[in-house]
Write a structure and sequence with these properties.
The termini are far apart. The protein is of the alpha/beta class. 37% of the residues lie in helices and 19% in strands. It has three domains: 3-195, Methylglyoxal synthase-like domain (Rossmann fold, 3-Layer(aba) Sandwich), CATH 3.40.50; 236-355, Cytidine Deaminase, domain 2 (3-Layer(aba) Sandwich), CATH 3.40.140.20; 386-506, Cytidine Deaminase, domain 2 (3-Layer(aba) Sandwich), CATH 3.40.140. It has helices at residues 15-26, 34-42, 50-54, 69-76, 82-90, 106-110, 117-121, 127-137, 151-160, 167-195, 250-263, 290-300, 302-305, 318-324, 339-345, 399-412, 438-449, 468-475, 490-500, and strands spanning 3-8, 28-32, 48-49, 98-101, 143-145, 210-215, 225-229, 241-244, 272-277, 280-286, 308-312, 329-334, 352-355, 365-370, 373-378, 390-391, 420-424, 427-432, 457-460, 480-483, 503-506.
């Protein structure tokens, strides 16, 4: 008797070629259903409809077609177990040697604009996951394929072993099938969690991804690393277009994400540029043009900018491209790049240029792995509300100082704690990051700003536990301080600001970044 294969796929890429080779090279008989059967029939391939094989029609608009004992018995039957063999014979069930299934396009459906819940629900596959899981469970006796990328490897197995498939290969494919159904179920559960969003995070939190690329190494050469894409549709960095340059590294991607987050603080109507190193900004600025914004950001700390990552909130033009080629940079990210700029940038062929039109969309939660578990939190994407800012000093800020403090506050939330940022004229002058005490970060930022600190503003990601930082800032010429407040010694810092004649504003929102 011929071997039996069940083919039922949503993604029909490669299915005709696979079916034809199964029939002509390896003498398989094929059963199939719905659109897959129609595709094979139109290609001239002989196929038995599932409804004819089971003797049961497709019902409920196609919701029930493969959920039948003749299908699942053929998948789950253990061929070396006497009772299973008898059950299969008594019920006229043929064993299946191959199950090829991929699932309804649920993720692609919910990615569409204005998709309804009813439309999403109809793309929740029931029979497909049931067959995949059953076949994966019974890999000892049959092969399961869940992706067109697996077809050639399966056919090669048959050719290399006179029509047989190794147990090792079947087990490998089973593992991939379980990963496929896991990712599918996670997409569905995430969709419903978003529909029924509540203040608290879900009781169960899962992560799944498909390997997009093996990376040369991780943070260091002795660490293995890979890049995984979440969801079946490429979004975020997986959807970015690389115009030129070397392959992205693990550290590149980490830095690029930090750069993306900071540049989204600025409206595309106002040219902005950020230069980052090791996820911390070393220069951020706004300008009358994109080229001016970049030059100001670069000059804010040109030493640290060497080998850095640049994020731009407007498409790269010729003037900006020319400026970018004047020093060594690792990566540049922007929403676009005009043709003249592309030609100019080709002079730096190793420079990675990435275009990400949607710079704004990011993850709703951030996840960190710890021993034995995960830490999950909402992303710190809160936008500053000036109406909630409280001026707590006798001296009131000017409108220009308020605008400058808002600029500094947008940046300080993206600097590793303890974080201090000094700015003037919408350009960073000094940044103190990751120090073990806040006054240390203050001193680093002010030393970097030097005499330019005169007339500038200072932002802090956390409260001042003592008034020493206020006094240090005033001595350097800082005229206004913006910080969250919340210390039991806030009154001491406020008193020092009043004494020294500087403005202090409390935002009420802390922005630690660890």
């Amino acid at each position: 008797m011929k071997r039996l294969a069940l083919l039922s796929v949503s993604n029909k890429a490669g299915i005709v070629d696979l079916a034809r080779k199964l029939v002509t090279e390896f003498d398989f008989e094929i059963i199939s259903s719905g659109g897959t059967a129609k595709t094979l029939q139109e290609a001239g391939i002989e196929v038995t409809l599932v409804s004819d094989y089971t003797g049961s029609p497709e019902i409920l608009g196609g919701r029930v077609k493969t959920l039948h004992p003749r299908i699942h018995g053929g998948i789950l039957g253990r061929r070396d177990l006497a009772q299973d063999k008898k059950d299969m014979e008594d019920n006229q069930i043929r064993p299946l040697d191959l199950v090829v299934v991929n699932l309804y396009p649920f993720t692609q459906t919910i990615a569409k604009t204005n998709v309804t819940v009813a439309e999403a629900i109809e793309q929740i596959d029931i029979g497909g996951p049931a067959m995949l899981r059953a076949a994966a469970k019974n890999f000892k006796y049959l092969t399961v394929l869940c992706s067109p990328s697996q077809y050639d490897a399966y056919l090669q197995q048959l050719r290399d072993s006179q029509g047989e498939v190794s147990l090792e290969f079947r087990q490998q494919m089973a593992g991939q099938a379980f990963a496929h159904t896991y990712a599918y179920d996670r997409a569905i559960s995430t969709y419903f969690a978003d529909l029924n969003s509540v203040a608290e995070l879900p009781q169960t939190y899962t992560i799944s991804g498909e390997r997009l690329q093996l990376l040369r190494y991780g943070e260091n050469p002795h660490q293995n690393a890979a890049w995984y894409q979440t969801g079946t549709k490429a979004t975020g960095w997986a959807a970015a277009k690389k115009l030129q340059g070397k392959e992205l590294s693990y550290n590149n991607l980490v830095d690029l994400e930090a750069a993306r987050r900071i540049i989204t603080e600025f409206s595309a109507e106002e040219p902005a540029a950020a230069v980052l190193k090791h996820t911390n900004p070393c220069g951020v600025a706004i300008g009358s043009s994109l080229a001016e914004a970049y030059e100001r950001a670069f000059n804010a700390d040109s030493v640290s900018a060497f080998g850095g990552i640049v994020a731009l909130n407007q498409p790269i033009d010729a003037a900006t491209a020319t400026a970018l080629t004047k020093t060594f940079l690792e990566c540049v990210i922007a929403p676009g790049c005009d043709e003249e700029a592309q030609k100019i940038l080709q002079a730096k062929s190793k420079l990675r240029i990435l275009l990400l039109p949607d710079l704004v969309t990011g993850q709703k939660q951030t996840v960190k792995a710890i021993a034995g578990g995960l830490l999950v939190q909402d992303s710190d994407d809160v936008r500053e509300n000036l109406d909630k800012w409280q001026v707590v000093t006798e001296k009131q800020p000017t409108s220009a100082q308020m605008a400058e403090m808002l600029f500094a506050q947008k940046i300080v939330k993206h600097v590793k704690s303890n974080a201090i940022v000094v700015t003037k004229n919408r350009t960073t002058l000094g940044i103190g990051a990751g120090q073990m005490n806040r006054v240390g970060s203050v001193k680093i930022a002010l030393e970097q700003a030097a005499e330019q600190a005169q007339g500038g503003v200072l932002a802090s990601d956390g409260f001042f536990p003592f008034d020493d930082s206020v006094r240090t800032a005033a001595a350097a010429g800082i005229t206004a301080i913006v910080q969250p407040g919340g210390s039991i010694r806030d009154k001491d810092s406020i008193a020092a600001a009043n004494e020294l004649g500087i403005v202090m504003v409390l935002t009420g929102t802390r922005h630690f970044l660890h």
